[in-house]
């Protein structure tokens, strides 16, 4: 299980640190909560310990998995590039909600390829998903490699250019 000080990823929110465990009395029932601080957004969430398994909370990746992330950033699915007019917001939102960094990297790779293939850029939902995916990965890279936000964004941009 998790403990105070662990670096974790919460799907759709990104990476943060467990800063505390608190016990709250809710309607006469004592419940334990993980207090997680997300440094990129400066947000703190309280996550009920009893719901942690279903929530998708996971530990951050190891530094040796960054090569997989770099590969996922530079590889786009050909089917996405073929149909550039259709927004892929639902598929991308599903991938982002998984909390998996490789899924987020794949969203970035696919939407970056789609953006390059279109004369007028991405649809609004695609732009939002691209930004969310980048922020998701940036937040995790900041904890995995102690990158600044700019260094993490550079890592993403450098590997997307290889696509």
Q: Please, could you describe this protein's structure?
A:
There is one protein chain. With 163 residues, this protein is an alpha+beta fold. The protein has 2 domains: 7-59, Thrombin, subunit H, CATH 2.40.10.170; 63-160, Methane Monooxygenase Hydroxylase, Chain G, domain 1. Helix content is 47%, strand content 21%. The protein has 7 helices and 5 strands; from the N terminus they run ββββαβαααααα. It has helices spanning 52-55, 66-73, 78-82, 89-97, 101-117, 124-144, 149-160, and strands at 7-10, 14-26, 29-38, 43-48, 58-59. Strands 4-3-2-1-5 form a 5-stranded antiparallel β-sheet. The longest helix is centred in the C-terminal third of the chain and has 21 residues, at 124-144. The radius of gyration is 17 Å and the shape is elongated.
What's the end-to-end separation, in Å? 38 Å
Number of helices: 7
Provide the residue-averaged pLDDT. 88
Please give the CATH architecture of the largest domain: Up-down Bundle
| Fraction of residues in helix | 40-55%
| Major β-sheet strand ordering | 4-3-2-1-5
Structural class: alpha+beta
Shape, principal axes of CA atoms: elongated
Strand content: 15-25%
CATH fold descriptor of the largest domain:
Methane Monooxygenase Hydroxylase, Chain G, domain 1
Secondary-structure element order, N to C: EEEEHEHHHHHH
Report the C-alpha radius of gyration, rounded.
17 Å
Give the biggest sheet. 5 strands, antiparallel
CATH class of the largest domain: Mainly Alpha
**CATH homologous superfamily annotation of the largest domain:** CarD-like, C-terminal domain
Number of strands: 5
| Uncertain runs | 79-84
Number of domains: 2
